[in-house]
Structures are given as C-alpha cells and as structure tokens.
Amino acid sequence: MSRQYIDCREYPSDKHCSVALAADDTKELLEAAVQHAVAVHGHKDSPELREQLTKLFKVGTPPLTAPIAKAA
What we know:
Layout: E1 4-7, E2 20-23, H1 26-41, H2 47-55, E3 58-59
Antiparallel strand pairs: 1-2, 1-3
Helix pairs in contact: 1-2
C-alpha cells in the first residue's frame, strides 16, 4: 500500500486549519483524520463522516506549501 494523506489546508474553515496528516495505512490515516475532525472542527464521529474523509485521501505526501483552498 502506498502512503496517503489528507490536508485540511485544502478546505476552507473558520479555524484556518494548517494540519496535514499522512500514513502508510488507510485505517491509521482514517482514525487520525476522524480524531482531528472531531476534536478540532467539532464534527460528530459517524459512518458518514468516515466515508467523506476517506474520499478526500490522496496518494503521496502533503505538499510543503499550502494548497489553494477549495470553495465551499
């Protein structure tokens, strides 16, 4: 399995979050992403949240510079 990541900098929020998470294992990345979404962004842990987060995973590692946030 290849390294994957999720990068909060790609998504606009009132927190202006600069966190990017990466892992070699999809389950490990999902758990870290869920913990972050719940603790920092106030989301509720649910099957729907987990599905949405998994769809945002990308192959590779996060870029060093912040990507341009996508419009909501």
